[in-house]
Amino acid sequence: MAAVVRATVGEDHKTERENALGAIGNISCGDGEVKKGMLELDGLMKYLVEVVDKEGDEYKVARKEALGAIANIAHGNGEVTKDMIEFNGLVNCLVKIVGKEGDEYKVAREIALGVIRNIAHGDVEVKKGMFELDGLMKCLVEVLKEEREEFKVARERAVIALRTISFYNSDLHAGFFNYPGFIPSVDAIIGNPSLTGTNTMKWAVELKALINQAAPVENVPPPPVATTNAIYRRIDTIESIVEGRFHKLEDRLGHMETILSRIAS
User: What is the spatial distance between Cα 106 and Cα 99, in angstroms, rounded to a whole number?
Assistant: First the structure.
């Protein structure tokens, strides 16, 4: 599969490359066994990361399709998430994309943050590994500070990613609480009246409530961790299912837009 896509290089094969990557994205919407098989398929993930890492407007659609496939592989299958954070170059590539400026990277930036969030649905060890990954937390906190309109979706997804990394993982809360710039950035979102009623505000409030468990407070009994964690896991599972269906609908709409634009031209 990767060999077929790899053959579609150069400007002459731009459409074929994008279509092939779109097909991979469709296949990656399969069940857990399909996702696991794609992750293990020789050369496929390596090629997808290479496409995401390509520079220039020529690869704008290809980057989107490759990131969408990676997001699908990471979504809803905890078995693959550990392998994904350990995959050579993947997280560094995602961090690089999130930090890119320019309109041609807007959609890629938003999808990359969705990939980070999907990977963060893994177990406690995966979340701990993500928190400790060089550059990832710094990248997410920097997006929290963004107030430009083109970062509106990206900021929401960065908040969700951080909340997911911290979810039912109290061992990390102290690290979050003391991470440079984290608390002021979250407080700035919560205190921004223009964000009232948005998902960004909602997730920021929940994130702050989670992390505040690590704040030094006297004479307050600790929360029932086992019960709280069970509730968090259930909510997290429901959100994962809903977001997965939304991603599939988003992909279908994207393919329809591509087809319509080709018909129109």
Answer: 10
